Each structure stands twice: as C-alpha cells, then as structure tokens.
Amino acid sequence: MTAKVALPAARKTVQQELVEKLRHAILSGIFLPGNRLVESDLCNSFGVSRPSLREALRRLQAERLIEIVPNRGPQVPVLSWRDAEEIYEVRELLEGEAASRCALLISGDDLGALRASLEAFRRASRASGTASELISTTSDFFAIILRNCGNKIIEETLTGLKARVNFLRSRSMSLPERAKKSYVEMAAIYNAIKARNARLARKAAQEHVANARNAAKIAFRMHEETLL
Fold this sequence. Notes:
mainly alpha; Arc Repressor Mutant, subunit A; Four Helix Bundle (Hemerythrin (Met), subunit A); 2 domains; two-stranded antiparallel sheet; 10 helices; 2 strands; disordered N terminus
C-alpha cells in the first residue's frame, strides 16, 4: 500500500489576504454602495503597495464587487432592486434544480459535510454570530449542493454570482430573526436531500430563495429610507 502523505496547509499570500479584507469590508458594509475607493487611502489603511492594491481591485472587479469608473477610479457599485430581483430569479431556477439533482447524486461523505455546514450556520445564528460568519456558513452549505448537482454549468453560473449573492445575504440577514428563519429553511433543504427526495429538495430550495428575496426587499426599502 502507498502511504498517505499529509501535506501542509497552504499559507495565504499577502495578495489573497488583501483581497479577503477588501471583500469583507464591502460585504460587511464598511464600504457602502456608491463609495469611492481612494487608492492612496487604501494603501495606507492596509499597509500595501499600489501595485498590490490594484491587482486586488482587479480581482474584485472580476467578482463584480467593485467597478472602475472612468475619471473617478474604483468604487463600490450600486446594486439596484431590479438587479437584485434578476439575481433572485436566476437563483430560484438554478438553486431549485441544483438541490433536486443533489438529492439524487450526493455522496455519503458530502452529505455529512452538508450536515456539518448546516450545524455551523445554526451555531452562528443562535449565538448572534457576525454577519461574516452567517454569510460564510451559508455560502459553504450551498457550495456543497452545487458541487454535488452533477452540472458544471449550473455550478459555474451560481459561483459567478457568489459575491453579489453574499452582498444580498448581508442585507437580508440584517433583519431581526431572518438568520433563524434561514436555518429552518436550510434544514428543510438538507432533510429533503438526506431523504433523496428530489421534488421536496427543489421545493424547499425555491421557498428559501423566495423568502430571502422578500427579506432583502424589506432591507432595501429600510436602507433607502435612511438616505432620505
């Protein structure tokens, strides 16, 4: 038998850490939609060079978390409610299909991983976890479903929307009790997948997206009212 070799965990590069810090600042609301990102200020705040910062900004631009505006430079884009609605429409279609297919295809190991990610989200929601904890554990849960849906195009499409979906999650999760309700909805998805019931898995996933859309709409309205 060939002995298994334990490989050391890869250390994050300074570039990766910078991207994650900037992504967190945007998703957590430190940088708000419409805010300009002044390069000199960011270099001083994060202690990085301008070339490193610009490379990080290019990566976030590819995720659609920032946009480069001619004669103004980088800024956090304003996501309109119409944009959000279109994202939710795509999610409802594709996440429903992904959950349905996952119920028939998921391996025993990944079913265990799905259960573990659901439990991690439960702990974060019951303990009033930070927004980043709630978002990351939710994202992990659905990433496992996508990985097991047997359709790379569905996975690639929804992964491409990940940053904007997480932005919307940060809005909807800001509502009182939304995280606890999300747990109930995610548990229903898990239970349907565990039972290998494709129809119920699709229904539970679509209901979760519909409820998330309703919560985000309320959060958008509340945010607009604060600007008046």
